[in-house]
Amino acid sequence: MSNILIERNHALGLPAARQHAQAWADKATAKFGVECRYESGEAEDLLHFSGNGMDGQLQVTAERLSLRAELGFLAAMFQEKIEAKLNEQFDEMVSAT
């Protein structure tokens, strides 16, 4: 299995970061059929996702987004493209105002 780790510091605050994470989950579900489960907490949220050969979670705090994912055999063949797209999406999230 291949792993992906993407971390971004941000100044969005938890409510805005939470909205971006939920929007990301909605897009992943609609576009790729990934199943997502969102757990809200006081200081930290966890978004669990699974599907299309990728399982992982996104940790959301007031200052940081941290995505950890494991890719299955077939998805691992496209790791560079998947990772590049995720990096692009997370760069957009943290630059949003």
Describe the secondary-structure layout.
Layout: E1 2-9, H1 14-32, E2 35-39, E3 44-51, E4 54-61, E5 64-71, H2 73-76, H3 79-95
Antiparallel strand pairs: 1-5, 2-3, 3-4, 4-5
Q: How do you describe this structure in short?
A:
This protein is α+β, with helices and mostly antiparallel strands. It has helices at 14-32, 73-76, 79-95; strands spanning 2-9, 35-39, 44-51, 54-61, 64-71.
Question: Can you walk through the features of this model?
Answer:
The protein contains 3 helices and 5 strands, in the order βαββββαα. Strand 2 and strand 3 form a beta hairpin. The longest helix is centred in the first third of the chain and has 19 residues. It is globular.
